[in-house]
Design the sequence.
């Protein structure tokens, strides 16, 4: 088996993607979540509840996000240590600053449209996509993620369960602060958010697994190794019907690489037999660590 090194993202591009993910999260929160009082978890949801309970022209949702995020970062530093910072510090600080800037540049006094379901869709879709980008790069926007990490350290709860409890508590509180309609929208949004984040995160991790049975494996292997820069495994196989000896090429590729390999194999060997499956968890060198 010949294995090539995985193509790792550069530190610069990593922070470019983290910045884009954070900006998408900000747009969803400020333009769709805040004006509609959709409080489905997280620091942004808690800020809406607190802004309603403590009405003040100074303590706006964006300002409260800034205060809570920084307070939780300090708490996380003392409880979890400096190791948890780096990317989380960058994303949470950028989130807080951008929300405050948006509030100054584009003050909103009402929702953008008169369709709450349409606004709920974007209030869930955009932040979920932004969060999924950060999770994919082993980062987060801070907030209740830090609370979940602290609970995991000192209790038997895993991160997912702790985060779900924290977000659920915020969403349920919306029932008492914003009324039944606002509360139900918030609870519904929390459910959609969980599904959306899982879907987007799995999409980032999706790989195509190839099993190619051919009598001419050399050009296929050359294309995989030298053109696609991936590894491959070769296995000698025997057909059950006519007992012909063939070679099975096994490899795992990204979606774009999979399309290129499929086209190439069909162009050089129309009799090649290909089995292509989808997986979101590939462990080993060049993929997920154990």
Sequence:
């Amino acid at each position: 088996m010949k294995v090539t090194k995985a193509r790792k993202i550069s530190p610069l591009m990593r922070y470019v993607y983290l910045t884009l993910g954070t900006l998408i999260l900000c747009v969803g929160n400020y333009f769709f979540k805040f004006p509609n009082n959709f409080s489905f978890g997280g620091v942004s949801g808690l800020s809406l509840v607190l802004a309603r309970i403590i009405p003040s022209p100074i303590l706006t949702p964006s300002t409260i996000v800034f205060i809570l995020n920084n307070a939780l970062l300090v708490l996380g530093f003392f409880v979890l240590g400096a190791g948890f910072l780096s990317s989380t510090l960058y994303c949470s600080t950028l989130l807080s600053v951008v929300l405050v800037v948006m509030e100054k540049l584009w003050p909103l006094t009402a929702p953008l449209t008169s369709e709450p379901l349409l606004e709920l869709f974007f209030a869930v879709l955009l932040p979920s996509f932004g969060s999924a980008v950060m999770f994919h790069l082993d980062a987060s926007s801070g907030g209740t993620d830090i609370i979940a990490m602290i609970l995991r350290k000192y209790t038997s709860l895993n991160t997912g369960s702790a985060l779900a409890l924290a977000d659920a508590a915020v969403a349920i509180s919306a029932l008492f602060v914003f009324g039944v309609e606002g509360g139900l929208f918030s609870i519904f949004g929390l459910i959609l958010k969980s599904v959306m984040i899982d879907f987007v995160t799995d999409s980032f991790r999706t790989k195509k697994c190839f099993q190619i049975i051919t009598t001419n494996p050399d050009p296929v292997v050359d294309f995989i190794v030298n053109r696609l820069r991936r590894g491959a495994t070769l296995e000698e196989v025997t057909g059950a019907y006519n007992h012909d000896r063939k070679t099975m090429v096994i490899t795992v590729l990204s979606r774009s690489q999979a399309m290129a390999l499929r086209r190439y194999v069909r162009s050089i060997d129309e009799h090649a037999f290909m089995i292509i499956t989808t997986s979101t968890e590939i462990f080993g060198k060049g993929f997920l660590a154990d």
Notes: The CA atoms of residues 60 and 145 lie 22 Å apart. Confidence is low (pLDDT under 50) at residues 1-7.
